[in-house]
């Protein structure tokens, strides 16, 4: 997350397009002295404890015209502290500041738009998690749970079939993938890029399908199971690399599954539900292992086909599930391989058999998105809870609410 010592720098970037020297002249002398002092103190602190970041940033060299532009900027991003320390500062700025940072000069823009800034953040485990969800057919919004800010994404381009069809989504790296069917009933992937703030057609799966289980870890994601275009239940699994935009077919699962869910936990991928139980995929050995009874129990008897896939999420390598019927939160004990109840979901977490309710991990917190709806209007609420290790019941915090008469159609969390 963002550190206090770079708060000043973040505010400078987001509030002005002027150079640092011009920005200082816009304030009274005592503020100038304080600002200069803060910058110098930041330089001394970064010189002492950020050698690793400095070495990594040296690989981000500018060439050709960019070198000339850098020279015109006095050879650094922030003149007083130098290029290497500048990058160290930028890594700790909020993601929401990066558009303003990119507008300051060519060097900043290259660092942000190339994605290098996010790669360095990932290497140094500096991550912010934002929630992306859609309550309208082609419209997506992003929510920053720390600043509690809303941002609208550009409207998705698509045909009528894709607009009206069921869709599935997943955030991986700096991409948001939305999968569905286009006008000729073939599977299609639309890709939103955080770097360009735009939508484009993405690469299709090697074995296109829907109703799969999926999860992401950094720049890679795994999609397991689902149904193909002929309705056949699949045992296929594929890995997507957002940096390369490529799909790689993995070994097949032990059982075909559809309407399942996926999570990463302890560095391994798990597919849960579909036909009961779950399976673990070890990325090192490339082998699947069945885990009986890993699928969370249901408190109300009804056909599994009528319910949403298991509502599961992982926080700090602990697996949680939402029981939409009993309005309860459960936790999975990895030693006994059993589920036990922790407490209640937020009271306004409404759904229809689990559809329209989002239950997601967002950094170190669980996020629940849902709410009452009516024909004349309604709203959805975003509630969060930070689980503890002692098994205490959830205490939910209302982050915000948003007017909407529709379900939460799709939801994903992007961490970068």
Protein described:
With 416 residues, the chain is an alpha+beta fold. It folds into 2 domains: 120 residues, no CATH class; 287 residues, 6 Propeller (Neuraminidase), CATH 2.120.10.80. Helix content is 21%, strand content 33%. It contains 10 helices and 25 strands. The strands form 6 sheets. Strands 20, 21, 22, 23 and 24 form a 5-stranded antiparallel β-sheet that branches. It has a 4-stranded antiparallel β-sheet with strand order 3-2-1-25, with no helix packed on it. β20 and β21 form a beta hairpin. α4 crosses α6. The longest helix has 21 residues.
Q: Which structural traits does this protein have?
A:
Neuraminidase; 21% helix; 416 residues; 33% strand
By oligomeric state, this entry counts as single chain
For this structure, the CATH topology of the largest domain is: Neuraminidase
Rg (C-alpha, Å): 23 Å
Number of continuous helical runs: 10
Q: Average pLDDT, to the nearest integer?
A: 82
How many angstroms separate the termini?
10 Å
CATH architecture of the largest domain: 6 Propeller
> How many β strands by DSSP?
25
- Global shape: globular
* Uncertain stretches of 5 or more adjacent residues: 1-50, 57-75
CATH superfamily of the largest domain: Kelch-type beta propeller
Helix percentage range: 10-25%
The biggest beta sheet reads:
5 strands, antiparallel
CATH class designation of the largest domain: Mainly Beta
Number of domains: 2
Instruction: Report the structural category.
Output: alpha+beta
**Into which percentage range does the β-strand content fall?**
25-35%
């Amino acid at each position: 997350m963002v550190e206090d010592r770079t708060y000043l720098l973040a505010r400078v970037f987001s509030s002005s397009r002027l150079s640092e020297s011009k920005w200082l002249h816009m304030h009274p002398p005592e503020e100038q002295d304080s600002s200069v002092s803060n910058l110098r103190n930041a330089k001394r602190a970064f010189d002492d404890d950020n050698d690793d970041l400095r070495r990594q940033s040296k690989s981000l060299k500018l060439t050709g015209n960019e070198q000339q532009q850098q020279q015109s900027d006095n050879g650094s991003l922030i003149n007083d502290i130098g290029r290497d320390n500048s990058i160290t500062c930028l890594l700790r700025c909020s993601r929401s500041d990066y558009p303003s940072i990119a507008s300051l000069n060519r060097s900043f823009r290259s660092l942000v738009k190339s994605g290098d800034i996010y790669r360095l953040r990932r290497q140094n485990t500096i991550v912010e998690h934002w929630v992306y969800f859609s309550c309208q057919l082609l419209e997506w919004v992003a929510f920053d749970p720390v600043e509690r800010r809303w941002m609208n994404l550009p409207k998705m381009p698509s045909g009528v079939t894709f607009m009206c069809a069921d869709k599935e989504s997943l955030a991986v790296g700096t991409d948001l993938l939305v999968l569905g069917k286009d006008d000729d009933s073939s599977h299609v992937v639309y890709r939103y890029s955080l770097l360009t703030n735009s939508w484009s057609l993405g690469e299709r799966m090697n074995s296109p399908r829907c109703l799969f289980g999926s999860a992401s870890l950094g720049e890679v994601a795994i999609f397991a199971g689902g149904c193909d275009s002929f309705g056949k239940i699949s045992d296929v699994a594929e890995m997507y690399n957002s940096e390369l935009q490529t799909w790689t077919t993995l070994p097949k699962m032990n059982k075909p599954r559809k309407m399942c869910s996926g999570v990463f936990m302890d560095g391994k991928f798990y597919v849960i539900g579909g036909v009961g139980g779950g399976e673990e995929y070890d990325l090192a050995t490339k082998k699947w292992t069945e885990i009986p009874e890993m699928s969370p129990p249901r408190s109300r008897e009804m056909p599994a086909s009528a319910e949403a896939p298991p509502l599961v999420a992982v926080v700090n390598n602990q697996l949680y599930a939402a029981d939409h019927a009993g309005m309860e939160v459960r936790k999975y004990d990895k030693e006994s391989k059993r589920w036990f109840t922790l407490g209640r979901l937020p009271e306004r977490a409404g759904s229809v058999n689990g559809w329209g309710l989002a239950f997601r991990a967002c950094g170190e917190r669980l996020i629940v998105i849902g709410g009452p709806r009516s024909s004349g209007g309604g709203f959805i609420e975003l509630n969060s809870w930070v689980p503890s290790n002692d098994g205490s019941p959830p205490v939910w915090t209302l982050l915000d609410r948003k007017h909407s008469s529709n379900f939460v159609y799709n939801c994903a969390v992007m961490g970068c």
